[in-house]
């Protein structure tokens, strides 16, 4: 049996004893005169407990039909156990602004982008990040034991770290700051008559997916002239291309195309990208890396990319005010990686020294995947900004609210054109370092000399194989599929739903792709306030999610139910492996049909009471 103890500063008062309304009135009747009884009764009535009421925020069906169906299922279960609940559909930007910036929610159903490295759980759940924005503990969760485990794993490696990660996962699923529902499959359609190479090293809608695509009948990366036409269902990239604006970044891929980083995660590990190499010095407990940049790196506006830009990026992301405000204003994105960096110093134009906090080398390497920003563009964005949509008590900078609709990056594609909520066009960047890589695995440096290119770089020799990449905004997966079937698009960037699988499979010159997604659908709880400040209440609610039924009915089996946020990772705790039912909180029922009596028992055990009419009362 799992322990329900939580070292949470917000739940200290949960064990406070309660005095019933009837008992209090009886006591008052013995001590007060009749003239005062009615006044006392009125006073007690105002303070008497009311029905537990909450809202579930989520996306509308036209943005993604799956979260709202999960929310509606959960709402039905909650009403069955006597809770007054309202499902609140919201636009994508508005939802993430409420959840990630303003922490204005009871609970929500949404999609987390996924966890590449378990250390990302540190910023997601450590109490140190409670007051920050973005995916920095939006739940307001605090548990000192979990904090210790999150800190310990950062410094460990090998079996010792795996053991810590197992304990960490068990503590997380015990406390339920959020409840994992499922990891979805990504279903996409592509045409095979204009482009091939769709079955590359990565999923289609990714940097390496687009770098793998080649015009049909061509070899290499230099001959393609046709535009690649893709559909997307998220219009945010047509109105905001700021890599730091967390509420607009549900789709990270487009920014990956525009902004390069020192390293890229390839074949399961971070490998040099803008960096030619990095060397480690481990004479102290905290590692230090000397990073050597490639020759001839350029920004899209023609300026040279230097080590000064790299050093600036880590300083700026750690405090976008650059010390000009009373307190630092860190960027809400890339916080997990940048929080590992103590300092970054340019030694010359192509060399930068990065000193890390106390962390293992494997964890520290993750910081190399942070996109590099041009200092000459972003330095002027350090001033304070005031804008509607942010908490009244928050301080933000221009860097975080700037739309950046003419972005200057160093990635393989550069911005060309955007039509608001309609389309986005990116052009091939012909001065990208990949364009200098020949297909014979030789790479020309700035002096015209050749050096062997690593195999993982050689895969993408010549860079993009087409002159432009056009994204067309569509309202739904069905609309996206229709465009592909009618040869008005070459592929679907945003995944479609299982309802489109049959049409895709029957079509001529169209291929169906089903890939595992790192993202996870989940229910997030606001542990800052009642009733979700009570860990036992969170557990009682989480058990109402019949994950197997939801995978069958909502995802049409194109998903994997899960308990742990690391269910897709090698570090998954064996005890939390899905085996037909949730190993921590089994659903009290079958096939979506709730055993109400058993479900109510969990709330009673948590100290809640019911009225004669079956309403659950606040504590």
UniProtKB/TrEMBL annotation:
<dbReference type="GO" id="GO:0015833">
    <property type="term" value="P:peptide transport"/>
</dbReference>
<keyword id="KW-0813">Transport</keyword>
<protein>
    <submittedName>
        <fullName>Peptide/nickel transport system substrate-binding protein</fullName>
    </submittedName>
</protein>
<dbReference type="InterPro" id="IPR000914">
    <property type="entry name" value="SBP_5_dom"/>
</dbReference>
<feature type="domain" description="Solute-binding protein family 5">
    <location>
        <begin position="270"/>
        <end position="615"/>
    </location>
</feature>
<dbReference type="InterPro" id="IPR039424">
    <property type="entry name" value="SBP_5"/>
</dbReference>
<dbReference type="GO" id="GO:1904680">
    <property type="term" value="F:peptide transmembrane transporter activity"/>
</dbReference>
<dbReference type="Pfam" id="PF00496">
    <property type="entry name" value="SBP_bac_5"/>
</dbReference>
<comment type="similarity">
    <text>Belongs to the bacterial solute-binding protein 5 family.</text>
</comment>
<keyword id="KW-0732">Signal</keyword>
